[in-house]
Q: What sequence folds into this?
């Protein structure tokens, strides 16, 4: 089932029907057995007509996040390891990336507070002080307060490669700034974990033309999703649960940098498409 966050509450799609749920978002999603709980909620929720549901889905969608923090895992795919080694070879930082790719402990970093997250169709930003910028399309987990994966959404881990490549200690500045994270369009809550054949694809459009297109199956990831969640929850509590971006495998060639006005479309099977236009903080 899919849960869309809208200004009136949540729109739940299940078995070709749509329901309006007014329970506050954090209270609704912050639990184990979320799929079963949502199925029960259908009994008390208002059934929407197809016209009402379409009108709500075509109005502004909010990012599917309330009070949760957004974290991210890095260097979980070979392509990401190789791209980081390449970009940081001048700074002498390259060797960290091959080590973390092989290490038992994954790279996990803080990505965003909820208020900095862009929703589907909102602008994502590139930094004014960065010369080399890319989107990173990432399967994003929703993890309950107890540490169990309950759902999935699409994440864009917008990144400055010039700042990250200059010095690995600049990683927080390369990764954490206004609208550097996008989540959406919905929270997908299946009865069973996503199949490993699930594909992530990304298209970047500029002036009506595709300037990048790529696709990967999540089976290419080096780590188990449940291990990433378990590492994140070591010695840490998340009273409302947490979102965890699981790393990118799709990295445009070194000549590519985002420009204002580019449209980034990330599609993940079963979940949908997250689209954002690129801009700068006003
Ligand atoms: O180590 C830098 C960031 C890695 C990352 O964001 C990724 O692999 O997706
Ligand atoms: Mg990333």
A:
């Amino acid at each position: 089932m899919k849960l869309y966050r809208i200004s009136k509450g949540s729109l739940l799609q299940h078995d070709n029907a749509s329901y309006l749920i007014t329970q506050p978002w954090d209270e609704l999603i912050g639990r184990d057995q979320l799929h079963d709980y949502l199925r029960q909620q259908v009994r008390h929720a208002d059934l929407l007509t197809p016209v009402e549901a379409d009108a709500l889905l075509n109005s502004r969608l909010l990012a599917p996040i309330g009070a949760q923090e957004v974290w991210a895992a890095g260097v979980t795919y070979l392509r990401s390891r190789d791209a980081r080694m390449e970009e940081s070879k001048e700074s002498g930082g390259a060797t960290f990336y091959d080590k973390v790719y092989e290490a038992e402990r994954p790279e996990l970093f803080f990505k965003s507070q909820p208020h900095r997250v862009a929703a589907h169709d909102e602008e994502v930003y590139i930094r004014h002080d960065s010369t080399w910028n890319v989107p990173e399309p990432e399967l994003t987990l929703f993890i309950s307060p107890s540490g169990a994966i309950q759902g999935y959404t699409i994440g864009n881990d917008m990144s400055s490669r010039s700042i990250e490549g200059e010095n690995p200690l600049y990683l927080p500045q390369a990764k954490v700034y206004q609208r550097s994270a996008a989540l959406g369009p919905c929270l997908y809550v299946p009865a069973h974990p996503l199949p490993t054949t699930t594909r992530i694809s990304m298209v970047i459009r500029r002036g009506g033309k595709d300037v990048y297109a790529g696709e990967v199956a999540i089976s290419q990831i080096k780590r188990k999703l449940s291990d990433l969640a378990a590492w994140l929850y070591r010695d840490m509590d998340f009273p409302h649960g947490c979102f965890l971006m699981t790393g990118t495998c799709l990295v445009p060639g070194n000549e590519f940098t985002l420009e204002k006005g580019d449209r980034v479309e990330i599609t993940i099977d079963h979940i949908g498409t997250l689209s954002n236009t690129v801009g700068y903080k006003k």
